[in-house]
Amino acid sequence: MSLIFHKYQGTGNDFVIIDDRAEQFDPTDHARIAALCHRRFGIGADGLMLLRNRAGYDFEMVYFNADGAPSSMCGNGGRCLVAFAKYLNVIQDKAYFLAVDGPHEARVEADGTVRLKMIDVAAPQPADVGEDDVFLHTGSPHHVHFLDPEESPSLAEFNVFAAGHDIRYDQAYDPAGTNVNFVEVPADPAHPWPVRTYERGVENETYSCGTGVTAVALAASQRGAASPVRLSTPGGELEVSFEVRPDGGFTNVWLSGPAVRVFGGEL
Q1: Catalytic residue check, 74
Q2: Is 37 part of the annotated catalytic residue set?
């Protein structure tokens, strides 16, 4: 049976998306998913998503990492799937869908920007690795490391793969591991916060990570950043807005940015 697929990207975070409302794709065939995501022998992507029917919702998001394994929430993936649902006329400008971390709302703006409401997030906690690092769970686990502006290398020169790999596999995060974000603190907190992310499941740096920049924005609020926070990734700029709860946690968290269809095909 042929497979019709679509390729989407959100600030360079790219995905293979399949309309699986008929449930003909085998979600347990992890080897096939990994092969489709392979950048040399497949379509190439940071992950694969299925759009499925779900009673009580506009659709369900089923997400897999590039290694073929089911994954936790993907923020840019969710935004791209909303854009895909609009492309299919499953939704118009608003969506209410189910993901692995629960229900989500989303909106598609006139300029193509997709705004995704994230889950409520607990206050940043001291990370088990690194003296000044913090940990947040924004639908996926995220370690956040702020680079010291007085030291080198800069974020542009930083070895994200090596440092991210070491933290991702540190025994403190066994057995599931964590995603790792490296942040350069801007002189003016109103300016975009540069971020680079090592993603588990991809096992490399990605051009962008939606749940990652969400974690960074919330952590940055403890360093003078006010909502909405702009964040600059290698793949483009995203924005995160939020409200701080009395307990230091966060609610009404929205991730906003572009979500673009790149091409489609048949295998």
Answers
A1: yes
A2: no
